[in-house]
Specification:
The complex is a heterodimer of chains A (117) and B (111). Chain A has 117 residues and is mostly beta strands. Chain A has no helices and 11 strands. In chain A, a hairpin with a 3-residue loop joins strand 4 and strand 5 (42-49). Helix content of chain B is 0%, strand content 51%. Chain B starts with a strand and ends with a strand. In chain B, strands 2, 4, 5, 9, 10 and 11 form a 6-stranded mixed beta sheet that branches. Chain B has a 5-stranded antiparallel beta sheet with strand order 1-3-8-7-6, with no helix packed on it. Chain B is built from no helices and 11 strands. Chain B is an all-beta fold and 111 residues long. The chains are: A mainly beta (117), B mainly beta (111). Chain A binds chain B through residues 30-31, 33, 35, 40-43, 45, 48, 50, 90, 94, 96-97, 100-111, and chain B through 31-32, 34, 42-46, 49, 87, 91-92, 96-99, 101-104.
Chain lengths: 117, 111
């Protein structure tokens, strides 16, 4: 079974703090993703990565950065947390699709519910 | 047209009912289609992939109409355990590996 593990289920931080959300997958997947999910807005893509040390912006990258030093680990960083970053954060991974073109199934971690006070 | 659009719901149905969810997508070049299920306060999980010829998995049937850019999910003989939010998912234009998730349709199956 594919396993995607997020380091924390619940996190409470103060405004201005630097926050690290960690995600590890055990299936040697090339692709990794960070989303946030808010009521009424659905899943929104923050950043994704196709390979080690590679990153690309998603739809809402402002206020976030990422790091992928090893294939199995993808970290999301909130440089200076703000109250509007209170949300559920979901990490996902997927293998490369057919011929590297067709999107493949994404497997999600259990999520981190972050509250910024 | 929004990239992926679903029935807003919620759908409240009795046990044993048949329920259908619809979804439209804007990118005519999309090649990958899925239905995910998300239980309350849990992560999304793959329910089934959607193939051009349509496919069935037990009580669940998925259909794809490329000409109309339309995907459907039919659940027969609804169970209480089917209560969840169902997300329509399509690959993102011009980007390998990247998916767009619909906002989901909430289903509540009542005894």
């Amino acid at each position: 079974d594919v396993k995607v593990t997020q380091s924390s289920r619940y996190l409470v931080k103060r405004t201005g703090e630097k926050v690290f959300l960690e995600c590890v997958q055990d299936m040697d997947h090339e692709n990794m993703f960070w989303y946030r999910q808010d009521p009424g807005l659905g899943l929104r893509l923050i950043y994704f990565s196709y390979d080690v040390k590679m990153k690309e912006k998603g739809d809402i990258p402002e206020g976030y950065s990422v790091s992928r030093e090893k294939k199995e680990r993808f970290s999301l960083i909130l440089e200076s947390a703000s109250t509007n970053q209170t949300s559920m954060y979901l990490c996902a991974s997927s293998p490369l699709g057919l011929a590297g073109r067709v999107a493949n199934i994404q497997y999600f971690g259990a999520g981190t519910r972050l509250s910024v006070l | 047209r929004k990239e992926v659009e679903q029935d807003p719901g919620p759908f409240n149905v009795p046990e044993g009912a048949t329920v259908a969810f619809n979804c439209t997508y804007s990118n005519s070049a999309s090649q990958s289609f899925f239905w995910y299920r998300q239980d309350c306060r849990k992560e999304p999980k793959l329910l089934m992939s959607v193939y051009s010829s349509g496919n069935e998995d037990g009580r669940f049937t998925a259909q794809l109409n490329r000409a109309s850019q339309y995907i459907s999910l039919l659940i027969r003989d609804s169970k209480l355990s089917d209560s969840a939010t169902y997300l329509c998912v399509v690959n993102r234009r011009g980007s390998q590996g990247n998916l767009i998730f619909g906002k989901g349709t909430k289903l509540s199956v009542k005894p």
